[in-house]
Amino acid sequence: MISVLRDPSYRKLFGAQIVALTGTGLATVALGLLAYDLAGAEAGAVLGTALAIKMVAYVGVAPIATALLGALPRRAVLVALDLLRAGVAVALPWVGEVWQVYVLIFLLQAGSAAFTPLFQATIPDVLPGEREYTRAITLSRMAYDLESLLSPALAAAALALVSFHQLFLGTAIGFAASALLVASVVLPRPKPLRRKSSRYEATARGIHIYLATPRLRGLLAVHLAAAAAGSMVFVNTVAHVRDGLGRDASDVAVALAANGAGSLLAALVLPGLLDRFEDRVVVLRAAGTLVVVLMAGAVFAGDWPALLLLWALIGAGCSLALTPGARLLRRSADPRDRPAVFAADFALSHACWLLCYPLAGWVATTAGVTTAFVVLGSLAAIGAFGALRLWPTHDPEVVEHEHRDLAGGVWTHTHEFRIDEHHARWPG
Prior knowledge:
Blueprint: H1 8-39, H2 43-69, H3 74-91, H4 98-126, H5 130-159, H6 165-183, H7 199-212, H8 214-244, H9 249-276, H10 279-300, H11 304-322, H12 325-331, H13 338-367, H14 369-390, E1 401-404, E2 411-414, E3 423-424
Parallel strand pairs: 1-3
Antiparallel strand pairs: 1-2
Helix pairs in contact: 1-2, 1-4, 1-5, 1-6, 2-4, 2-7, 2-13, 3-4, 3-6, 4-13, 5-9, 7-13, 8-9, 8-10, 8-11, 8-13, 8-14, 9-11, 10-11, 10-14, 13-14
C-alpha cells in the first residue's frame, strides 16, 4: 500500500493532508475548551451550533466555490485556502464573544469546503492508475482514522505544557505546513471549463452529473446509510456510556477508539477486497452490515463488551462503504468535470450527516437509545435498499454514451466515462 508514496508529488500531498489533519484535530479539542471558557454550562449548545454551521458551510459552499475556483491554477488556490484557514486559526484565541466564534468557524469550514473537493480531485491527476489510486484513497482513510485516535492524545500532552489557546497555534502551523508542501508540488493544469456557462450552470453541473449517474445515485444512498450509523456513534456515545452504562469518562474514549480501530482495520484489508470483488459488491455488503449492526444495537448495546464490538463494526462498515466512493467519482466524470463532481459528493454526503446528526440526538434524548438504534437502523435500511435498487448490477467502467452540455446544448461523445446508463440529457 505504501508503494504509492514513492511518487514524490503524491508523497508531498499526503504529507500536506497529515499535517492539516493534525492541526484540525488540535482545533477540535481547543474549540470545546474555548466554548466552555466563553459559555460555561451552555458550552454544549455552542458546540452544537458550531457543528451545524460546519455542515451548512460544507453543503452550501463546496459547489459554489468549485464553480468559481475550479478553472484557476490548482496549486495557487489550494495554498491560498490553506493560508485562509491558518489565519482563522490564529484569530480564534482572541475572540471574546460567542458570535465571533460562529463567524470564524464558518470561515474556517468554508475554507475546508472549498479546499477538500479540489484536493481530492487532484489526486487522480497525480496518480492516474486505478491500482495506485485505490492505495492512495485507502491511505487517506487511514490518515483520518489515525487522526481521530491520536489527536486527542497529542492535545492532552500539549495541554500539560501550554494553555488551550496555544492549540490553535498548532492548528495554524499545520495549515501553514500544508500550504508549503502543496506549493512544492507541480500539479497538472486544470482543464478549462466549458464556454458560455453561467455561474448557476457551472455551480449546478456537478450535481446534475452526480444525480444523472446511476452508480452515484447509489453512492448517495450509501452515504445516507453510513451517516445514520456514524451519527449514532458520534452523537450518542458520551450520554450512553456515562448515563446508560454508568461508566466513567475514560470509557467514552475507549468506545470511540473502538470505532476508529474498526475503521482502520477495514481500511487495511480494503485494497485486497477491491482487487478481488467489484466495488458494488463491497460497498453494498458493507451498507447491509451497518443495518444489521444498528438493529443489533437495540438489543445488545446495554452490554459494555457488546457495545465496543458494535462500535468497531460500525467503524469497519463505514470505512468499507465510503472509501471506494472516490473510485466511483473518478470513473464517472472526465477530468474537466471532476472537481465539480467531487464537490457535489462532498455537499450531498454532508447533507446526509446534517439530517442524521440532529435526528440521532433528538430521538435518543426523547425516546431512549434503544429507539434511536431502531430509527437510525431503519434509515440505514432505506439507504442500503435504495443503493441496491439505484446502482445497476451491470456497471462496466467504460460505457459509450452521449450527453448534452449544460450551457451550450451541444451533443458530445465520449468512450471513457460513464455519465448515465446510456444517455444523459441535460437541459439547455
